[in-house]
Amino acid sequence: MGRTLAEKVWEQHVVRRAEGEPDLLYIDLHLVHEVTSPQAFDGLRMAGRKVRRPDLTIATEDHNVPTLVGPITDPVSKTQVETLRKNCAEFGVRLHPMGDAGQGVVHIIGPQFGLTQPGMTIVCGDSHTSTHGAFGGIAFGIGTSEVEHVLATQTLPAYRPKTMAIEVSGELPDGVTAKDLILAIIAKIGTGGGQGYIVEYRGEAIRKLSMEGRMTVCNMSIEAGARAGMIAPDETTFAYLKGRPHAPSGDAWDAAVEYWKSLATDEDAVFDTVVEIDASTLTPFVTWGTNPGQGAPLGTAVPDPEATDDPAAARRALEYMGLTPGTPLREVAVDTVFVGSCTNGRLEDLRAAAEVLRGRRVVTRTLIVPGSMLVKLQAEQEGLHEVFKAAGAEWREAGCSMCLGMNPDTLAPGERSASTSNRNFEGRQGKGGRTHLVSPAVAAATAVTGKLTAPADLA
Amino acid sequence: MDAFTTHTGRAVPLRRSNVDTDQIIPAVWLKQVSRTGFDKGLFSAWREDPGFVLNQPAHQGASILVSGPDFGTGSSREHAVWALQQYGFRVVIAARFGDIFRNNSTKMGLLPVVLPAETVEALQTAVEADPALEVTVDLGERQVRWGGEAAGFEIDDYTRWRLMEGLDDIGLTLRNADDIAVYENGRQPWLPTTV
């Protein structure tokens, strides 16, 4: 019997397999940021251990960093960032600090440097590590104990998850994006639908996505409960990687591509579960509740809780969100629009927002936060920042920003956002804040009208 | 970590689904660089409501949390586990858990117990009827017992052994340092380094 992409990559990384034990898995790349690492470095120090492979480890500052130019004013955030700097210096780990041209959100900089490649195992103390699976590797989030484990051993003990195929047939209609697709998938399978699985996204609609769109899809795998999502590498992947600073070159490139091509799931491989979605039926998708599975097409209305799978949760969510069943989603007024995050903070996302905002004015507070300093530079080289500023939006420095509000970018209690980030949990963007997850195009159109809006609705 | 064999204590019913880790410990608490002091952050937004179940006098001192399905979804923050432990919980019972949360729990000695949804509800109902009800979670027998009832749960042998012995994962892995070195010598030559 043939093997799936996930099975091939997993097998390639098994250091040790013993009856009755989890596999010991080698980790090719360990991404580190300031929030989930301090206690792990402390653990190393207490045990007298060193970082086994600093050359397979890279760190950045992202969660706490302010997106307005200037130093960190919150003393607790400042201490956390300074702790990362101290730890990286002591243990010999490459760090991209605030102000550095390579700084950015951890899941944006890996691909940008060409460090994220097909067939690799990649971990980070962050659940959105699933992003990197877009290149055809196994990438998943870990907790701080496991961060310490990887720092010390470059391995992790783990049981191989089951395999799920999400087959996306057809083509996404015009105006429907990777974000709409993944929100629709999560609404279909639920926040627990992927628990215990590595998801492989397959089918015509996936093949036609850019690498940036594929990263958006894989990024939110965790929102469906799956630790990892992946997409088989193809010419789109190779074209994205070629020439990047850490991508192979010369003969090594040819050897790598030959190997990468062998990773695709075999014709006769069998998945534990298969889910099918027809992309051609999709429309712009938004969330109405307080978990990413509580979403609906923008053209519909706030649902009746009794008609949902979990009425008690839906009632609670609508109360928190201040929404009434039956209200058309297009009538929901928002105060703030956020474009950014590891889900939608890449150049293509900023282009999509700029296309809508060109020649228009925003009526909401609108934050445009590039995912990395390189994305910022590239956007400015294309003049996107001028489009945003002319529209009345704020053009910021790179960071996680309002995705989780660990820096000063937060919602006030009761304030409502349309956000291109990944989580609409209670208080996620600030205590009492209300979040609607949307695509960059819908975010921009919403900023223009002040209500949840698709670009096609604009005159 | 502390070894876990058998624990007997009182339980708190949390009748909510999708209790994500942002609720368990909001992001503002994650700025700390130590492993301690997270008990105050546990469910800090929900605890502002005097009616919230953790605020009820009858449930003070409880050490077993009995939640709705999909407990611990979302963020990988291990701080969620630390907050639960530092507040006094030794066990969380639910029908489904977020994968990363469950993994983090077993690294720290907080026992995640999966029971069928109807069993979880029966236990919640029993605790609501009698908040002083003693609940025993027996990892050796893989069983939860309360008021004459008993429910078995599954956990793989390896994780169970590690929890019962209170073993440090890193120490276990380093016993196989030779295997790691051998593997490293055979890695594909084009794989990137960060230097």
UniProtKB/TrEMBL annotation, chain A:
InterPro entries named among the record's database cross-references: 3-IsopropMal_deHydase_lsu, Acnase/IPM_dHydase_lsu_aba_1/3, Acoase/IPM_deHydtase_lsu_aba, Aconitase_4Fe-4S_BS, Aconitase_4Fe-4S_dom, IPM_dehydratase_rel_enz, IPMI_cat
Tree of life domain: Bacteria
MF term (GO), any: 4 iron, 4 sulfur cluster binding
Pfam families: Aconitase
Protein name: 3-isopropylmalate dehydratase large subunit
Function in brief: Catalyzes the isomerization between 2-isopropylmalate and 3-isopropylmalate, via the formation of 2-isopropylmaleate.
Pathway the protein acts in: Amino-acid biosynthesis; L-leucine biosynthesis; L-leucine from 3-methyl-2-oxobutanoate: step 2/4
Record flagged with keyword Secreted: no
UniProtKB keywords: 4Fe-4S, Amino-acid biosynthesis, Branched-chain amino acid biosynthesis, Iron, Iron-sulfur, Leucine biosynthesis, Lyase, Metal-binding
Cofactor(s) needed for function: [4Fe-4S] cluster
GO process annotations (BP): L-leucine biosynthetic process
Limits of the Aconitase/3-isopropylmalate dehydratase large subunit alpha/beta/alpha domain: 7-450
Subunit comment: Heterodimer of LeuC and LeuD.
EC id: 4.2.1.33
Disordered as annotated region, ranges: 411-434
Positions contributing to [4Fe-4S] cluster binding: 342, 400, 403
Homology family: Belongs to the aconitase/IPM isomerase family. LeuC type 1 subfamily.
Gene: leuC
From TrEMBL, chain B:
Enzyme class, first EC level, given as a word: lyase
UniProtKB keywords: Amino-acid biosynthesis, Branched-chain amino acid biosynthesis, Leucine biosynthesis, Lyase
Catalytic activity: (2R,3S)-3-isopropylmalate = (2S)-2-isopropylmalate
CDD domains the UniProt entry points to: IPMI_Swivel
A cellular component annotation (GO) from this entry: 3-isopropylmalate dehydratase complex
Residues in Aconitase A/isopropylmalate dehydratase small subunit swivel domain copies: 1-117
Pathway in which the depicted protein is active: Amino-acid biosynthesis; L-leucine biosynthesis; L-leucine from 3-methyl-2-oxobutanoate: step 2/4
Assigned EC number: 4.2.1.33
GO biological process, one term: L-leucine biosynthetic process
GO molecular function: 3-isopropylmalate dehydratase activity
Function: Catalyzes the isomerization between 2-isopropylmalate and 3-isopropylmalate, via the formation of 2-isopropylmaleate.
Family the entry assigns: Belongs to the LeuD family. LeuD type 1 subfamily.
PANTHER family: 3-ISOPROPYLMALATE DEHYDRATASE SMALL SUBUNIT (PTHR43345:SF5), 3-ISOPROPYLMALATE DEHYDRATASE SMALL SUBUNIT 2-RELATED-RELATED (PTHR43345)
Annotated HAMAP family: LeuD_type1
Subunit structure: Heterodimer of LeuC and LeuD.
Protein name in the entry: 3-isopropylmalate dehydratase small subunit
Organism of derivation: Planomonospora venezuelensis
